[in-house]
Amino acid sequence: MAVATIVDYLGGLVLPDTPEAGPAAQLAAFRRDFYQCLTARADALFEITDAVLCADGPVRSLVGLSLAPEHRRGHGALYDGVNCGRVDIDRLRVALAALPPPRTTDGRIVLAADVSNWLRPDAPTSPDRLFCHVYGRAKGQAQLIPGWPYSFVAALQPGRTSWTAVLDAVRLGPADDATAVTADQLRAVVGRLVTAGHRHEGDPDILIVTDAGYDVTRLAYMLADLPVHLLGRIRSDRALRLPKPPRAPGIGGRPPKHGPEFALDTPDTWPVPQHRTTTQTTRYGTARAASWDRLHPRLTRRTSWIDHDGDLPIIEGTLIRLQVDHLPGDRDPKPVWLWSSATGAGGADVDR
User: Fold this and answer.
1) Domains along the chain?
2) Which one-letter DSSP state was computed for residue 296?
């Protein structure tokens, strides 16, 4: 592609008097990097991207994008770009990781991993479709619909906002282990962030948050060598184990590997929490958190651990119970249980 064509597409983004450093310059640099990721039908794909981003409302059809002012070609070029265009995905991942990631007030990067489904119920010939779990608006209205599940990793903005910086997306196949795929995905994303210079020795660990659909304890074991801290929601019907009690003198036999059971739905099994915190919020009323240190699941040689060599690991972390006064709409809230891969968390850590 001629340099003049690239300048025609990208050079007009920044005015001549725009400073070399700043949000506009960063956006212009990323647009140039993104253009270099388009290896076939680059002009058509670039204009399609601008049309999607600048559309006034939801994009309901491809041909509708050809009517956007940002798309300066006919609808034939639009379909040609979609059918014959190519994107260098690995180069795009590097370009996304090079952008300055959002950070919390203490300078920490927060990543979220989740699965989003592209439903394809009317495409029976599409390869590798799976049954995707879709939640309904009312209780008991969840259903399974054929589609393609995608695993996303995004950097979260601080505060109450719906904006995220998507860093990676991988489609899950029928034979994929979702936790193993997510672990490899997170390892690659963290590696690209470190290579891009966004985390240095001595910086806070990268916080990774997940929902209850992930085995957060297994993720913590698979990513233990990385500078990350896992925090995930767990189901309220699970049972964990307390640390093994100290061995009394004069007691023979094999020492226990696990302590007493901690059933999340049975308060009689809960010992006294190590920490309790209370925070006043404008949206949820009083938020009360309690934490227990060094809780771990009792693993068995089934499912993902069936081929594990050696003794099964003890994956300890901090269990947190969060209870709020009310939810939006005055609904009666149920407690939320969280498991953190960090042990020895203090009251400030639990409160945060």
Assistant:
1) 3-87 (no CATH), 102-226 (3.30.420), 235-351 (no CATH)
2) B
